[in-house]
Design a protein that fits this description.
- The complex is a heterodimer of chains A (427) and B (450).
- By secondary structure, chain A is mainly beta.
- Among the domains of chain A are: 106 residues, Double Stranded RNA Binding Domain (2-Layer Sandwich), CATH 3.30.160; 146 residues.
- Chain A is built from four helices and 18 strands.
- A twelve-stranded antiparallel β-sheet of chain A has the order 7-8-9-10-11-12-13-14-15-16-17-18, covered by helices on one side. A five-stranded mixed β-sheet of chain A has the order 2-1-3-4-5, with helices on one face.
- In chain A, 17% of the residues are buried.
- Classes of the chains: A mainly beta (427), B alpha+beta (450).
C-alpha cells in the first residue's frame, strides 16, 4: 500500500511538472514568421515556355527566374529518336544542400498525341521527378500523394502460376555443452492462392527436438523429446464486403496435449462490422464455426478414452483499432463440445484485451490481460505428470482457469525531438 | 455463365409474353409480340454490353497494373499496410524480380526515437537510379503517426520511378503548406533526455504461477560528438510450481546500472569510459562493480552505420565481485582486472544479411582464465526464391570464476536457474527455404484471419 502511494505521488508530481513545461513551451512559440513561399521548393526550369502553367500545376514548387536562386535546376531538351519521333529529355540537378543529386527522365511523343497532351504529360513527369528533390527537404512533409484509381485494392495480376505461391523450408540445429546436449529438426511446406474472391492455404509443418541433461554428481540423466506434426488447411470464399464463408481443416500431433493424432473439419462463417478493406485500420469480426474433431491419445485420458470423436462449436468476436492516440486489440471466444445435445459442460471461455496509449505526449501506458475459464481438458492423461515433466513444461496440466495480466507505464521528458544519431559504442 | 443465364431468362420471358398475347385478338397480338420482341432485344443488348464493357475495362485495368512499377520492399513497416496504402505499384516475391528494391534500416536517435534510412535501388530499366531518404520517428510518435509518416516518405521516393509507368496518370499530388509557424528550435533541455518506466506481469494457473516486474530509469545526452548515457534497471522474476504437494520456487533478481561517457573522433574513432554495477543470482553474483575504458575503431564510416557497421573494440576493466556462495576457488569476494576485445560486422543488402561477432577476454591476474565467443548469423538469397541461413554460437569458456562450490540441485538444472560448469558450448543451426509460384503478391485478404 505504501509502495502504491509513493508511486501515485511520484506519478502525479511528474504529471504536474510535465504539464507546466508544456504550458511554457506553447507560450514560447508566438511571434514568429510564417511564409508559405519559403516552404516551397525553389526550381529553375529552362526549355519550357509556359512557366505560369507549371506554377498552376505544380503547387509545391516556386519557379524562380534565375538559376542562382534555385535548389533544383531543370532542363527540358527536345530530340528526335531513330524512328523519327520527338523525344523530350528532362534533366535535373540539385544545388546547395541538394548538390550531387541528379536525375534524368524522358518522354517519347506517341503517334496521335496532341501538343496539349504532350504538354500535360511533360508536366506530370516533371512533377514526379521533382517530388524526389522535395522529399530531401522539409517541403516533402507538406506533399501528399493520392492514387485516384477507382479500385480500393491493388489489382491482382495474373501470371502463368494463376496466383499460386508455394514455399518450403527446412532447419537443423545442434547444441552441446558439458552436461547438456540436444538437436532439433524441422521442416514445412506451404501452398497458397490468395485473391479477393478466394483464399486457399495449406501448411504442413513438422518439428522434432531432443534434449538431454546429464550430471553424474547429482545422479541426473534425463532426456526430453518433443514431436509435433501439423497440417493446417483453410478455404474461404468472399460473399460481400462484410460476409465470408469457409472451412478449416486440421490434422496434428502434439506431445504437450497428449495428442497422438487428431483431425478436425470445421465449416465456418464470418461477419465483419467494418468493410474488410479497412482491416489495417480497424476491424471487428464475428466468426462462428461448427466442426467435428477426432482424436487419438498417447495415454488413456481421465475419462478412460484412448480415442474419441466429438462435435465442437465456437464463436469468436475479435477487434482491433489503430489510432493516433494508440491501439486496442481484443478477442472473446467461447467454445463447447457437443457430446450429446444435452451436455454443454465441456466448454471454455477466453477473453483477451490489450490497450496501448500515449497520454500528453510524454506518458505511455499499456495493459494486457487474458482470462480463461477452462472446462474442456478432456485430453488430460490419467497418469498425471512426473515432476521433471512439470518443471520442463512437458505436459499440459489440469487447471480450471488461467489468467495473466501485464501492465506498464513509461514517462519521458527532456529534448524529446532531438534527431542526433551517434552510433559509437553501440546504438 | 451469367450471360447464359440471362439468355435463358429472356427466352422464358418471351414465352410468357407470347402466351399472354395469344389470348387477345390477332392485331393486338401481333403488335404486342412485336413490341415484346423489340423490348427483349433491347434488354439483351443492355445485358450483353454491360459484362463486355466490364470485361474490356478489367483487361485494361489489369494491363495498367501489370505495367506498374515492380517493387520489393523489406524492413521498417508492415507489408500488408503498405499494400493497402500504396496501390500504384506491384509487389513481387523476390528482390530479383523488382524494378526497385527498397530497404529500410534504422538507428536510434539521441532522444530515443528512431531514424529510418530508406534506400531505393533501381534494377532492370532503372539500373543505376538510386536514392536514399531519411524518416524520423520521434520518441513521442504513436504507431499510427509513425506508419502514416513513413508511407508518405516511401511514396515520395517511389514517384521518380513511377513517372514513366502508366499508373502516373492516376496519381494526384497535393500540397498543403503547414500552418505551423517556423520557429528556430530552442532546445531548453540542451539535448538531455530522461525517462522512467515500470512493467509488471502476473501469469497464474493451478499448478504454475509467475510474477515479474521491472523498473528502469535513464538519463542521457547525445550530441554529434559526445555521448553520455546512464541507466538503472531492476528485474524480479518468480516462478512457482505446485504439484502433488511439492512446491518449487524459482526466483531471479537482477540489478544492472551503467553509466558511460564517450567521444567520437572523426568518422572512424571513438573512446569511452564506463562504470557498471550488476547483481544476478544466475551467475552467483551478489554485487559487482566495474570501471572500464574502451577504444573503438569502426572500419566503415559512422555515417553508414545503419547500412553496414564493423566496429573493433579493445578495452580494460577493473572490477570488484561479491559472491552469494563460496566459489570453487574458495572466494566470497575478489578483485579482478580484465582485458577484452571484440569485432562486430553487420551488413545488409538485397543479397541477404550477415552478422559476425567475435569477442574474447582474459583476466590480467591469470591469462589462462579466458573466454572466446563467436556468433555468426547469415541469410543469403542464392537465387530466385531460394535462400539459405545459418546461426552459429561457439563459446570456449575458461573463466567461470563465479561457480558455486556446493554444486547444483536437480531443480536448478532443469529450470536452468544457474549457469552450469562447462568448458565449451556451441549451437549450430542451418536452414534453407525455397518459394516459387506467382510473381505478384498484391492482394491482402484478411478474411478468417491472416
Amino acid at each position: 500500500m505504501y509502495l502504491f502511494r509513493t508511486f501515485r505521488s511520484l506519478f502525479l508530481s511528474l504529471f504536474i511538472l510535465s504539464s507546466l513545461f508544456s504550458a511554457l513551451y506553447s507560450q514560447e512559440s508566438n511571434g514568429s514568421i510564417s511564409e508559405t513561399e519559403s516552404q516551397k521548393l525553389n526550381v529553375y526550369v529552362s526549355g519550357f515556355a509556359d512557366i505560369s502553367f507549371l506554377s498552376k500545376r505544380i503547387n509545391f514548387a516556386l519557379f524562380v527566374s534565375e538559376e542562382d536562386l534555385a535548389l533544383v535546376v531543370v532542363k527540358i531538351e527536345e530530340k528526335s529518336t531513330v524512328s523519327g519521333e520527338k523525344e523530350f529529355i528532362i534533366t535535373y540537378s540539385g544545388r546547395d544542400e541538394l548538390d550531387g543529386i541528379s536525375d534524368e527522365l524522358s518522354h517519347v511523343r506517341q503517334p496521335g498525341e496532341t501538343e496539349e497532351n504532350t504538354k500535360q504529360t511533360l508536366v506530370t513527369i516533371l512533377e514526379a521527378g521533382l517530388i524526389k528533390y522535395a522529399a530531401h527537404t522539409p517541403v516533402g512533409e507538406n506533399i501528399s500523394i493520392k492514387y485516384t484509381h477507382t479500385e480500393e485494392q491493388v489489382a491482382a495480376v495474373k501470371d502463368k502460376w494463376n496466383y499460386w505461391l508455394f514455399g518450403m523450408n527446412f532447419r537443423f540445429g545442434l547444441n552441446r555443452e558439458k552436461s547438456m546436449k540436444g538437436h532439433n529438426l524441422s521442416g514445412g511446406f506451404t501452398a497458397r492462392r490468395i485473391t479477393d474472391e478466394w483464399k486457399m492455404r495449406a501448411n504442413v509443418n513438422t518439428h522434432y527436438s531432443e534434449n538431454t541433461f546429464e550430471m553424474e554428481e547429482i545422479d541426473l540423466a534425463y532426456t526430453n523429446i518433443t514431436r509435433n506434426y501439423n497440417f493446417d488447411g483453410l478455404l474461404v470464399k468472399s460473399l460481400s464486403d462484410h460476409w465470408s464463408i469457409g472451412v478449416f481443416c486440421q490434422a496434428n500431433q502434439y506431445t504437450y496435449y497428449n495428442n497422438k493424432f487428431s483431425v478436425e473439419l470445421a465449416p465456418a462463417v464470418e461477419y465483419s462490422i467494418f468493410p474488410y478493406i479497412e482491416s489495417e485500420k480497424r476491424s471487428f469480426t464475428f466468426l462462428y464455426r461448427l466442426g467435428y474433431v477426432y482424436r487419438n491419445y498417447w495415454d488413456e485420458t481421465i475419462y478412460g478414452k484412448m480415442k474419441e470423436g466429438l462435435a465442437q462449436t465456437s464463436l469468436t468476436a475479435e477487434m482491433e483499432i489503430i489510432k493516433t492516440w494508440g491501439s486496442i486489440e481484443s478477442y472473446l471466444t467461447g467454445s463447447v463440445y457437443l457430446k450429446d445435445l444435452k451436455d454443454f459442460t465441456k466448454n471454455r471461455l477466453t477473453w483477451h484485451f490489450e490497450i496501448d496509449v500515449r497520454l500528453f505526449k510524454r506518458l505511455t501506458f499499456d495493459i494486457e490481460w487474458r482470462v480463461s475459464m477452462i472446462h474442456d481438458q478432456i485430453f488430460l492423461a490419467r497418469g498425471g505428470a512426473s515432476f521433471e515433466e512439470v518443471l520442463l513444461r512437458r505436459k499440459r496440466l489440469e487447471t480450471r482457469w488461467d489468467y495473466s495480466i501485464e501492465f506498464g507505464f513509461g514517462y519521458s521528458f527532456g529534448s524529446l525531438r532531438s534527431k542526433v544519431v551517434n552510433p559509437i559504442f553501440g546504438n | 455463365m451469367t450471360l447464359h443465364k440471362n439468355i435463358i431468362k429472356n427466352i422464358i420471358l418471351l414465352n410468357f409474353f407470347q402466351r399472354l398475347c395469344f389470348r387477345n385478338d390477332p392485331v393486338k397480338r401481333y403488335r404486342k409480340v412485336n413490341c415484346a420482341v423489340w423490348f427483349l432485344v433491347l434488354l439483351l443488348c443492355v445485358q450483353l454490353s454491360a459484362p463486355c464493357q466490364a470485361l474490356i475495362k478489367a483487361e485494361t485495368e489489369e494491363n495498367v497494373q501489370k505495367k506498374a512499377l515492380k517493387v520489393f520492399a523489406e524492413g521498417g513497416i508492415s507489408r500488408d499496410y503498405m499494400k493497402r496504402e500504396i496501390r500504384f505499384i506491384n509487389y513481387v516475391r523476390d528482390p530479383r524480380m523488382a524494378d526497385v528494391y527498397v530497404l529500410i534500416t534504422s538507428l536510434s536517435t539521441g532522444s530515443g526515437g528512431t531514424e529510418y534510412t530508406i534506400t531505393y535501388q533501381g534494377q532492370n530499366n532503372y539500373e543505376g537510379i538510386n536514392d536514399t531518404l531519411i524518416f524520423i520517428r520521434n520518441r513521442t510518435d504513436t504507431y499510427e503517426i509513425y506508419r502514416r509518416g513513413m508511407i508518405k516518405v516511401i511514396k515520395q521516393g517511389l514517384m521518380r520511378y513511377v513517372a514513366t509507368t502508366p499508373t502516373i496518370n492516376d496519381i494526384s499530388v497535393s500540397y498543403k503548406p503547414s500552418v505551423r509557424k517556423i520557429v528556430p528550435e530552442v532546445d531548453k533541455w540542451k539535448k538531455w533526455v530522461f525517462s522512467i518506466g515500470f512493467d509488471a506481469e502476473l501469469d497464474v494457473e493451478k499448478h504454475e504461477k509467475g510474477y515479474d516486474f521491472n523498473i528502469n530509469l535513464s538519463a542521457s545526452k547525445i550530441t554529434e560528438k559526445w555521448k553520455f548515457t546512464s541507466y538503472f534497471r531492476y528485474d524480479y522474476n518468480e516462478n512457482r510450481f505446485e504439484y502433488e504437494e511439492r512446491t518449487i520456487k524459482d526466483i531471479r533478481r537482477r540489478l544492472s546500472a551503467r553509466s558511460m561517457l564517450a567521444k567520437k573522433i572523426g568518422e572512424h574513432w571513438g573512446i569511452g569510459v564506463s562504470g557498471n554495477i550488476n547483481s544476478d543470482v544466475r551467475y552467483n553474483n551478489k554485487l559487482s562493480a566495474a570501471l572500464s575504458s574502451t577504444i573503438e575503431y569502426n572500419i566503415y564510416p559512422y555515417s553508414e552505420f545503419s547500412r553496414r557497421q564493423f566496429p573493433v573494440r579493445i578495452g580494460i576493466s577493473l572490477s570488484h565481485n561479491d559472491y552469494y556462495e563460496e566459489t570453487i576457488y574458495n572466494k566470497t569476494s575478489e578483485f579482478l582486472g580484465k582485458m577484452f576485445m571484440s569485432a562486430a560486422n553487420i551488413i545488409q543488402g538485397k543479397w541477404g544479411s550477415v552478422i559476425n561477432v567475435i569477442s574474447g577476454s582474459f583476466y590480467i591476474q591469470d591469462f589462462n582464465k579466458n573466454n572466446f565467443e563467436w556468433v555468426n548469423m547469415f541469410n543469403f538469397r542464392l537465387f530466385e526464391g531460394f535462400s539459405i541461413n545459418a546461426f552459429t554460437v561457439v563459446n570456449l569458456i575458461h573463466n567461470q570464476l563465479y561457480l558455486e562450490k556446493g554444486g547444483l540441485t536437480i531443480e536448478e538444472v532443469l529450470l536452468r536457474r544457474k549457469q552450469f560448469e562447462t568448458r565449451y558450448n556451441y549451437y549450430i543451426s542451418f536452414g534453407l527455404s525455397y518459394s516459387f509460384g506467382s510473381k505478384f503478391q498484391n492482394i491482402v485478404n484478411p478474411r478468417f484471419g491472416y
